[in-house]
Amino acid sequence: MPAPAPTARTPIPGSRRRRRPGWTALVVAALVATACGADTTSPPSGDAAAPEAGGTFPVTIEHAYGTTEIAAGPQRVVSVGFSDQDPLLALGVVPVAVREWFGEQPDATWPWAQDELGDADPEVLDLAELNLERIAGLNPDLIVGVSSGMTEDEYKDLSAIAPTVARPSEYVDYGVPWQEQTRVIGRALGQEDRAEELVAEVEGRLVEAREQHPELDGASAIVARPSTEPGQFFLFGPDDSRSRFLTALGLTIPTEVAELAGDSFIATISAEQLELLDVADLVVWNVDTPADREAVTSNPIYQQLEVARSGRDVLLDEQANAALSFGTVLSLPYLLDELVPELADTVPTG
Question: What is the pLDDT along the chain (350 residues), one digit of tens a residue?
């Protein structure tokens, strides 16, 4: 499935978000309907397992929209973030609902997280907008949206249903590093120590990969993607998880890209500006469909660039593209096994 058109308000691959009128009214209606008709002892949809309570509560978490207090160990977690299911699953918590992003994977869960999901069958929430009545009907005691890009209004509305955790204030939307994503969710679950262990494990593997591939150290790289708008392309800034993965391996993001992205995780350029890619030693194309690949390889301007003519580009397959887009505690180990060797073979040496 091709990824829907992204905007600066959605991750990539992502979707153009549509705001329904009467959003706050829907929250009230959803809560009333739940209070009047829901059985609070009923199990979640599917076979999602309740997490074991742990840690010391209450827990207070600061984020972009204030603070959230979690009174007791969460038992029914709804994940509205586009990739938050991965750290939840890594911490042994199967959410009662997850949010669709792209790829139409079973239970919106990619292969690298299927072992952690097991036989559970969480509900899958829509990509474009959050159905408040549906979320309230799940009787959550925690809503996690670290990677959701939620607005303050959406945060307030979700908080009327259950304690809600948004992104930390020091990061842009969709720019929370995987380490902090894992730690924040770990704190919310009362599993701060386990979250640190998971972060240390993956960071250790990143260090090993960097040591094994010194040819990557100091080389410059750009992660790019064709837009659904003809003649336009996206470049991912240094605050995006895709770029952060490359810098963890010792690669650098050109200052030209950082300046274009500014305070966003992304910059948009025209086909005529593709020559900017030649400032990099390596270009990684975040493509997930044959049409995306064709948009890159058939572009006459790109064909003339040195980075293309000398084979200094990597066009990802569907799963590597997804793993790089997610950039989580579960997807990064997959990339270390499958993508890093290709990057090392492609980057110029000498």
Answer: 333 334 444 555 533 333 333 333 333 333 333 333 333 333 343 444 444 545 789 999 999 999 999 999 999 999 999 999 999 999 999 999 999 888 677 787 888 889 898 998 898 988 777 889 999 999 999 999 999 989 999 999 999 999 999 999 999 888 899 999 999 999 999 999 999 999 999 999 999 999 999 999 999 999 999 998 889 999 999 988 899 999 999 999 999 999 999 988 899 999 999 999 999 999 999 998 899 999 999 999 999 999 999 999 999 988 899 999 999 999 999 999 999 999 999 999 86
What three-state secondary structure class fits 260? helix
Q: Is residue 224 domain-resident? A: yes
Please indicate, yes or no, whether the overall pTM of this predicted structure exceeds 0.85: no
> Is residue 4 domain-resident?
no
The verdict on residue 280 lying in a domain is yes
Say yes or no: 224 and 199 in one domain: no
> 231 and 115: one domain?
no
Is the same domain home to 220 and 198?
A: no
Distance CA 174, CA 73 (A): 26
Pair 155, 163: CB distance under 8 Å: no
Whichever domain contains 236, its CATH number is 3.40.50.1980
- Measured between alpha carbons, how far is 26 from 178 in angstroms, rounded to an integer? 32
| Cα distance from N-terminal residue to C-terminal residue, the chain | 40
191 C-beta neighbours (distance < 10 Å), count: 25
Same domain membership, residue 232 and residue 182: no
If asked whether residues 159 and 279 sit together in one domain, one would say no
